[in-house]
Amino acid sequence: MRYSWKDWVHVTKLDPDKEIDPASIEEIATSGTDALMLSGTLNVTRENLEVLREQVERYALPLVVEPAGPEAVLFDGVDGLFVPSVLNTADARWIVGKHHQWVRHHAVEWEKVVAEAYIVLNPDSAVGRVTGAFCDIAADDVAAYAVVADKYFRFPIVYIEYSGTFGDPAVVCAASEAVEEAMLYYGGGINSAERAAEMAQYADTIVVGNAVYEEGPGALKTTVRAVK
Fold first, then answer.
1. Domain 5-227 sits in which CATH superfamily?
2. Where do the domains of the chain lie?
3. 167: pLDDT confidence band, cut at 50, 70 and 90?
4. How far is CA 149 from the centre of its chain?
5. Short-list 166, 227, 172, 181, CA closest to 10
6. DSSP label at 142?
7. How far apart are CA 115 and CA 221, in angstroms?
């Protein structure tokens, strides 16, 4: 990668399945966010990933893809591939199954791959429904998953994903205290400076996505200022 992802404190997530105008992309790219992540759960294809990549490629920002599955992987023109495994599900497809299919049938540029241990905590989110994640779990359980990811599987990123709703800071704090080596990412419901600052107390990196589409780039800028 052109820049070390371990130094990022703010990442903006853009969904290939959602439309965004060029003026908004300009504002997002110049907001001070550290990187752009192209990521979505539903209706993500190589084609719409490529369209979105072309929209943002002119800006000097690190660009990573977070694939929803082996059919939506893009290496050309991106700096990295952040590949999630959902730990709190009984459906092995989302832990290792999709990954097996990917490696079985496609060439992988391993130097661009960064593995993420996802802990999904919003049952009403698309990612929660699709993966069958056990979302109604206590802070101690979240912390235990974080330790398993950090110490046993050695994931470089542990991602607390509330996807669309603002999470419980006590849960994120518990995960932060449990993780020693991995970087802790938080995503979900960050649409204000106050929420960004609160979660940035515990997470190494906050991820802002829905606010870009629901409230516009202005809301994104307030979150950048809050954590920088």
1. FMN-linked oxidoreductases (3.20.20.390)
2. 5-227
3. very high
4. 16
5. 227
6. H
7. 28
Structure tokens at 154: 């050695």
The first and second tokens of residue 24, run together, are: 């908004």
Rounded CA separation 35/62 (Å): 5
Using alpha carbons, list the distances in angstroms from residue 23 to 29, 53, 58, 62, 217.
Answer: 10, 15, 13, 19, 10
**Predicted confidence (pLDDT) per residue in 195-209, tens digit:** 999 999 999 999 999
pLDDT in tens, 44-57: 888 898 999 999 98
CA atoms within 13 A on the CB side of 199: 30
Distance CA(168)–CA(42), nearest Å, equals: 25
Q: Which residue has the tokens 């050309």?
A: 76
Exposure letters 101-119 (e unless 16+ CB within 10 A, then b): ebeeeeeeeeebebbbbbb
178 vs 216: CA distance, rounded Å: 34
4 contact partners, CB below 8 Å, separation of at least 6: none
- What's the alpha-carbon Rg for the chain, to the nearest Å? 16
Which residues neighbour 112 within 8 Å (Cβ) at sequence distance 6 or greater? 1, 75, 78, 79, 80, 81
Selection from 125, 127, 36, 45 nearest residue 87 by Cα: 127
CA distance 161 to 4: 22
